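Here is a complete protein record:
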Amino acid sequence: MRRRRTEERRPRGRALAACLTAAALALLTACTTDDDGAAAGISTPGVPGPAEPGTLRVLASSELTDMAPVLEQVREDTGVTVRLTPMGTLDAVDMLAKGKTDGQYDAVWLSSNDYLRLRPEAARQVVSETPVMTSPVAIGVRDATVRELGWKPDGVTWSQVEEAVADGKLTYGMTDPARSNSGFATLVSVASALSGAEAALTDADVREARPRLKEFFQGQQLTSGSSGWLAAAYERRGNVDALLNYESVLQGIDGLTVIRPRDGVVTADYPLSSLASTGAATREDVRKVADALRTERLQRRITDTTLRRPVVASVAPAAGLGTERRRELPFPGTRSVADGLLDSYENELRRPSRTVYVLDTSGSMRGDRLAGLKAALTGLTGDFREREEVTLMPFGSEVKSVRTHVVDPGDPERGLSAIRADTEALTASGDTAVYTSLEKAYGHLGGDEDTFTSIVLMTDGENTTGADAADFDGFYRALTAEQRRIPVFPILFGDSDRAELEHIADLTGGRLFDARQGSLDGAFEEIRGYQ
């Protein structure tokens, strides 16, 4: 039971929700620069920028920021500047469906339009689409693990992967399919293969495959809202055997054998699409850009730069990309099947989440800031999953209380109502004991390999009392190995110190989220992909 369907979610204003390659870390700045120093058009995430003659404002899947050097060449060839606004694919579809792209964007460029087609109100906004490149879902397995399993990469099937998981010989990470198209495409690939579906998945196929899928997802030990963070967490932790993602992402990670399962995959085709709300001149610019991207010269540059596959037959894939054909697994044919599959994944198949929300309720939070925090947390209860454990730990000069609630599948509203009541009871007082409160959160959590465990830190100011940064560094280093794998996701808000929060995120393997550029509820929702 998913708390909210995709079309019911509030816009999150999230910077990253679909997969990111390492190059996509450039999202944190307003633009990217190619090797020659020429500025490429990357807008601040979620902000399209003003309309300008000769410029296309393109709502794009987040990972496409690695196309900056190619788009600079397109500008030189056509005179058209492409300015990407990165966003998670499912959020972009939601914007289209609600008509929020009208007058804001001139084109859309997603990893796939398959999910878009399941939503007629979104599909009507698109009047043309031109595939630019492809990348199939794949499994990147540590070279040593491949040898231990005795696998021949060209012959591996999803059933063999499931068997290795069941035998305790394989663990992996993947992005959250409710927020990342790479994660959703992976979920569809696994469900289609393990169900034995000969055509597009049906509800009956999902029901039939549920026992095998539940066993398969017991092997998932990392989740993420972005592929960039997933890859960094994989290398940091060192105890996960594999990653499931697009081939282009996996090819860029050292020490992985990239396997395209023999029984089939779902492939992203990255169509550049014109919008119905635009005029003839704008659509002509979209056509010029699409034609330029499909020239042999730029197709070669795309595959060499991004490790995606060309769509022009005369251009060979970059070195290292296998040429053996694989069955293309069909996408679900109806919206109800897609949503049902997501519901099953979030509330039954995946490991449950366990999160401590360390919340600054010091005196500086009085008034609008505390009201904003309460509104954001209350809204977030609509997104909590069944079996999820949520701990609220408000602090000022010290931790004020520790209240833990579980969303019981038998009576989810009971836990959600309790979280809302505790949220409403929050009051602002005291100084700001950031590090002392984080130490308390780690003490509460201990170590637990059976859940996705994390700490969310929200503060509007600097640490002013209790343990300092050096104290916390020493505390963290003394934790057990399992506890050190628990990331902290700080939220930059109000007058909080970016350097201080970045250090906490870097030390613990988390990621900083900026509520000053978007909104507090948007930051909380974006973090959901990492829990």
